[in-house]
Amino acid sequence: MQRAVFNIDPYSFTTSAFIIGLILAKELSIEEQDSIGNWLQLIGLTMQTYASQNVTLAVSRDSTSNDSKDKNSSDIETLKETIKRMEEELDKLYKK
Q: Is 24 exposed, middle or buried (0-12, 13-18, 19+ CB in 10 A)?
């Protein structure tokens, strides 16, 4: 794949996708639009999933086991505190 497409500024990149979408929508039936739209979304989701798994694996390889344990412990405490605050807010809403 040519790298030139990655040198386009974000505004032009997004605008080009929008214009292509409008052109295709005008040329295709509703069923065709739905089919092609779902197909393009699947391509995007597949690429995102692949990339995020690569990042996850790279991060897990780079971190040491002690760092991971400390981070996990901190994350768990943060989650517990967040859940506690959410429960308090839900109790307030329930009492109203």
A: middle
